[in-house]
C-alpha cells in the first residue's frame, strides 16, 4: 500500500492597520502588524477559507486534489500562526489560495495578509519554526521597547562575529606556525 505524503505549511496572519488607534499607539510598531487573531476565526473557518480559495482559483479539480488531506494541525489566535497539512503533490494550490486571501471570512471581515513562512515535510520542523518565530518576535518587540534599533543591534552582532572570526583566524595561523596564543614557540616552552 502506498503511504500518503503530506506537506506542512507554517502560516502567519498579519493585520496591516491603516492608522493605529489610540489604544495601540503605546505598542511598538512591530506589534501593530503582528496582532492577535480574533477568537471567532478558528481552525474550521481557516479550512473553509482555504477550500473556497482553492475552488475559486483551481475549480473542481483543485478541490478534489486538495481535500484528501487538508487539515489545520495547529492554530494559535494569540500568535496569529497556523500549521496547515495538505497533500505533497498539490501544496502549491493551498499556498496560492492562502496568498490570495485578503480578508477574514464574512462575519469578521478584517483585512489580512496571509504569509506562508515555511513548507516542511514533517510536523516537527513546522512546530520548531513556529516556536523560533514567536521567540524572534518577542526579542524584536523587547528591543523596540528599549529603543534599540534593529539596524544598530545587527551591526553590533556583525562586529562581534567578525572579531570572533578574526581571533579564530589568528589562532589557526599561530597553530600552523607552531606557536601558542602568547606568541612563543611550542618547542621553546617545553
UniProtKB/TrEMBL annotation:
PANTHER family: RIBONUCLEASE P PROTEIN SUBUNIT P14 (PTHR15441), RIBONUCLEASE P_MRP PROTEIN SUBUNIT POP5 (PTHR15441:SF2). The keyword NADP does not apply. It catalyses: Endonucleolytic cleavage of RNA, removing 5'-extranucleotides from tRNA precursor. Belongs to the eukaryotic/archaeal RNase P protein component 2 family. Keywords: Hydrolase, Nucleus, tRNA processing. One of its GO terms (cellular component) is multimeric ribonuclease P complex. GO terms for molecular function: ribonuclease P activity; ribonuclease P RNA binding. This is Ribonuclease P/MRP protein subunit POP5.
Amino acid at each position: 500500500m502506498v503511504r500518503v505524503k503530506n506537506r506542512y505549511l507554517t502560516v502567519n496572519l498579519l493585520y496591516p492597520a491603516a492608522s493605529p488607534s489610540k489604544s495601540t499607539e503605546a505598542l511598538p510598531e512591530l506589534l501593530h502588524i503582528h496582532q492577535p487573531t480574533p477568537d471567532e476565526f478558528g481552525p474550521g473557518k481557516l479550512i473553509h477559507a482555504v477550500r473556497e480559495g482553492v475552488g475559486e482559483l483551481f475549480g473542481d479539480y483543485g478541490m478534489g486534489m486538495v481535500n484528501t488531506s487538508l487539515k489545520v494541525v495547529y492554530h494559535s489566535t494569540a500568535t496569529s500562526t497556523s500549521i496547515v497539512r495538505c497533500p505533497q503533490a498539490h501544496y502549491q494550490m493551498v499556498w496560492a489560495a492562502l496568498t490570495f486571501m485578503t480578508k477574514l471570512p464574512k462575519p469578521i471581515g478584517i483585512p489580512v495578509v496571509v504569509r506562508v513562512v515555511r513548507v516542511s515535510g514533517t510536523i516537527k520542523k513546522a512546530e520548531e519554526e513556529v516556536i523560533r518565530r514567536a521567540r524572534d518576535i518577542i526579542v524584536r518587540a523587547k528591543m523596540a521597547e528599549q529603543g534599540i534599533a534593529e539596524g544598530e543591534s545587527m551591526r553590533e552582532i556583525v562586529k562581534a562575529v567578525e572579531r570572533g572570526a578574526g581571533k579564530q583566524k589568528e589562532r589557526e595561523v599561530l597553530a600552523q606556525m607552531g606557536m601558542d596564543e602568547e606568541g612563543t614557540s611550542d618547542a621553546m616552552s617545553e
